[in-house]
Amino acid sequence: MTDQYLLLPVLGHLTIAIALIFCWRRILVQQIISVAGNLLVLIMSIALFHKTWHQGHLTLQAGNWQAPFGITFVSDTFSATMLLLTAFTGLAVSMYSTVGISKNRIQYGYFPILHFLLVGLNGAFLAGDIFNLYVWFEVIIISSFVLMTLGGKKPQVEGGIKYVTLNLLASVMFLTAIAILYGLTGSLNMADLSLKMSGVSNRGLADIAGLLFFIGFGIKSAVFPLYFWLPSSYHTPPSAVAAVFGGLLTKVGIYALIRVYTLIFIPDDFTRTVFLIIASLTLLTGALGALIKENMRTLFSYLIVCHIGYLLGGLGLYTHLALAGTIFYLVHDVIVKTNLFLITGLVNKIRGTMNTEQQGGLYDQYPRLSILMAIVLFSLVGIPPLSGFWPKINLFRESMAYHAWYLLVAMILASFVTLFVIARLWGNVFWKKAPALESSPPDSFAGLSKGRKFMLVTPVVMLVLLSLYIGFFAERINVLSDRIAHELLDPAPYIKSVLGPDAVPATQTR
Amino acid sequence: MELLLLILIGVFYATGIFMMLRRSMVKLLIGIILLGNGANLLIFLLGGITRGKPPIIPEAEKALTGAYADPVPQALILTAIVISFGLQSFAIVLLKRVHVLIQSDDLNDLNTPDTSI
Predict the structure, then answer these.
(1) What is the distance between the alpha carbons of residues A164 and A142, in angstroms, rounded to a whole number?
(2) Is the dihedral of CA A446, A448, A451, A453 positive or negative?
């Protein structure tokens, strides 16, 4: 059904970003506007989620040009969930940034760019038109380029080059795939493409377009042979920036991949096998990389790569249960990965270094903070009542049912390595006695005022509460992911909501 | 005409990827630009080339009749050109900044983030 307020989360962030540009040098005003604005967008996103949950698919035809001619925005349960996660992450990162980002960076436009990034993310989740999705992706990457290199330190711009090059290459791949798709079908609307793709006679070219999409989104979401840019760039920007990148940017690639491969292309056995093998290799290489790293953020960057494998594996299995598991894992991963990078920022503030070997004794000094961080770390591993555990049941079970033993082995190994790495990290950073260094950097956390400490710790607490909710009320998230998986595997309601009730021929059931 | 464009696109893609694989940063940039232009021409070609038939409805008629040029690919290319213009100008400034910092044009010298671990 048509809903005129669908774009509010996008327009909200856009308005805030423009308002922030007008307060260019006033740091305090920018901080207040950004946090308040994120709170407002969170309320809008909750409202949109509530509406989508109760009324089904919502659509908006831009300028009232009827689909497939105009640009369509669609909110189904998947989009609304992603918007909600983005809003939570945005609020947490924006609160953390008020203290965690240096004054210089704020003066050079950190907050406006952060909000432009959130505009792009929200737009990408709502886009119902493949070229529009491309445009939102470009909004995302140009903002992320600026956030990545803002500050202009040497490691930062060097990591920036790798990040920029690979993302530009991914965009060209994406554009090439769109060109082929348009040449084949003469349409750009995703619902319309879904109908027309089954009538395309040149299957070979259609498969090539599909694989080009996979390469394009694969670079963005850092799957096996295409992930090298991620560990060599994600540890260079400030922690708040790394948090929003780690939490959302790779996940938007996975979102687009799931969308394209459920709506437009239906993966055949060959594509599924490719997905499964690449997922297994992603899990293994990510885990192996994490084993040898001593810098906390590089270690977590490899864990991002590793855990993308679970998401891709679920898509490769392509059954109802596996997709539900993937969605559940996605929900858990966005919250936990964001929080993970926020706590590395906290540890860095306290110890002045990211190197785990040079740290220690955090548990003696800050017991309450350490317990908080323990919950995050062990949610990531998936110790049973915490959030990472539940989606793995689905994924393990389905890979056994599909006889994808290599994926099962890779998933178990990756879980085990994650546990090992986190346990070692816990021992090194929290339990071990602090090593006697000649010049230990000062603790810049203890000197902060109460209010500033509050702004640093509250976002972590908020995200911890969310991941505890995901863990202890797993049944509710299960209902949600079950519904999303159902909608993904049966695109008829999606197509009907965009193109009208008569669009789907009765004979075409998939 | 199609054949000519086809060859041109092939050359753009091939030289673009070749340039990206070189170690010089300037060649990397040229590679990205060539690839982007190749993709734009590909959209133009795959949208179908119709000569001298603009999609304008004559005054006496209510709808378009017969073959006419598809305006959508041109709108897409225009959008893509604007976007890639912005991205490329950012990339140029970034490369300049890196060149100032490391005093080298060689991509192999970009090792600070990997060795500082």
Answers:
(1) 9
(2) negative
* Chain A residues near residue B95 by CB distance under 8 angstroms: 161
Please measure the distance between the N-terminal and C-terminal CA atoms of chain A and give it in whole angstroms: 23
The residue with tokens 């690839």 is B35
Q: What is the pLDDT of residue B114?
A: 62
Interface of B with A (CB under 8 A): 20, 25, 28, 32, 35-36, 38-40, 42-43, 45-48, 70, 72-73, 76, 79-80, 83, 86-87, 90-91, 94-95, 97-98, 101-102, 107, 110-114, 116-117
Range B2-51+68-115: architecture per CATH:
Orthogonal Bundle (1.10)
**A258: Cβ contacts below 8 Å, ≥ 6 apart:** A78, A315, A323, A326, A488
> Which chain B residues touch A172 with a CB distance below 8 Å?
32, 35-36, 38-39
Cβ–Cβ pairs < 8 A, chains A and B: 103
Phi, psi at A509, each rounded to 5°: -120, 135
Quote the pTM value: 0.93
Beta strands A72-75 and A58-61 are antiparallel
Beta bridge partners of A129: A189
What's the pLDDT tens digit per position in B56-114?
888 888 877 777 888 888 899 999 999 999 999 999 999 998 888 888 888 888 776 66
Which of A131-135, A159-163, A322-326 is the least confident region?
Answer: A159-163
Domain map (residue ranges) of chain B: 2-51+68-115
pLDDT at A168 over 80: yes
- pLDDT (tens digit per residue) in A439-477: 667 777 777 888 888 888 999 999 999 999 999 998 999
B10-68 residue pLDDT tens: 999 999 999 999 888 899 999 999 999 999 999 999 888 887 788 888 888 887 777 78
User: pLDDT tens, A24-78?
Assistant: 888 899 999 999 999 999 999 999 999 999 998 999 988 888 878 889 999 999 9
Contact (CB, 8 A) for A244 and A311: no
Tell me which chain B residue has its CA closest to the CA of residue A160. B94
Shortest alpha-carbon distance between residue A175 and chain B (Å): 6
| Cα–Cα dist A100/A81, whole Å | 28
Tell me, what's the pLDDT at A509?
A: 46
Instruction: Return the closest-CA partner of residue A243 out of A450, A86, A362.
Output: A86
Query: Are B94 and A160 an interchain contact pair (Cβ–Cβ within 8 Å)?
Result: yes
Q: What is the rounded distance in angstroms from the CA atom of residue A147 to the CA atom of residue A388?
A: 29
**Cα angle A122-A127-A130, degrees, rounded to a multiple of 5:** 135
Alpha-carbon gap: A159 to the closest alpha carbon of chain B (Å): 6
Q: Looking at the partner chain, which of B35, B38, B98 has a beta carbon nearest the beta carbon of A161?
A: B98
Q: Does A178 touch chain B (CB under 8 A)?
A: yes
